[in-house]
Amino acid sequence: MEKLSYSNALKRAFSMLKSQNKFPEDAQYLMEELSGFNYTQLQLHRNEEVPNDIMHKFRDGLLRLGMDEPVQYILGYAYFMNRNFSVNENVLIPRNDTEEMVQQIIDDHPKKNLSICDIGTGSGIIAITLGIEFPEDDILATDISKEALQVAQLNADNYQTNNVFFKQSDLFKKIDPQKFDVVVSNPPYIAEDEKKDMDQSVIKFEPDLALYGKDNGLEFYENITQQIDNYLSDDGILYMEFGFRQKNAIKAIFRDNLPNYVVEFHKDISGNYRYLKAKKEM
Q1: Is 188 annotated as a binding residue?
Q2: pLDDT tens for each residue of 120-163
Q3: Cys-Cys link to 219, which of 74, 117, 119, 213 (CB 3.0-4.6 A)?
Q4: How big, in percent rounded to 5, are the helix, strand and coil portions of the chain?
Q5: pTM
Q6: Residue 189 annotated in ligand binding
Q7: Domain boundaries in the chain?
Q8: Is 123 assigned to a binding site?
Q9: 186 is in an annotated binding site
Q10: Is 159 annotated among the ligand-binding residues?
Q11: How many helices and strands, by DSSP H and E, does the chain display?
């Protein structure tokens, strides 16, 4: 194997990815994660040879980046709220928008123990983050995908969140009748006709089951709002993430299905409405 310095390895990688119309910054991120160096440290070590084991993984990763595979799947993990979570093609890669919703839940949490339900947990990031923050809470996390739940359980075992329990269920179908203080969901909300606007890495590699919703991406908002009254305590709160074009349609769904609920819509750091907080009018 040809010996290359960090600097030359990255120059070649940038050139290769640019020629394929891919993102050169993915190569930078891949090298930082594989080497354990941050950006500044890589600059300091730029003239050193890349060790063989790292170079081998880096070259393999570049080929996969060239085929549009997300760098998080190549590494096998992604970061969410400064924690490391295992991910693979059976679960969505965590997004910043979800961090903002979870931070809102943390900020709203009263000084008492709560029962929480996470619908469509995927890799378990929401449930596990809340389980770490509030170790006395009881948290049930569900997903229709058995493969996603295997990833979630791996992450829960890694963080030893003994207060988070997983159940395979299509929305509320397999959940015993009970009332939760918080129900949270980041459901599939992308409409099929929005595929044309999406990145190839998402279309090719992230799971359709976790991405797309029928009825212009609104299917799960209809279904959850029709059933939530059976599962939310009188002073409980429902949190849901949604697409940046969906606020008005979701507002109408709540008006029709839950007219006695007050709904707050919250913007992300880009100024788009991206999640909601709903509770019964008291």
Answers
A1: yes
A2: 999 999 999 999 999 999 999 999 999 999 999 999 999 999 99
A3: 213
A4: 45, 20, 35
A5: 0.94
A6: yes
A7: 6-67, 90-280
A8: yes
A9: yes
A10: no
A11: 13, 9
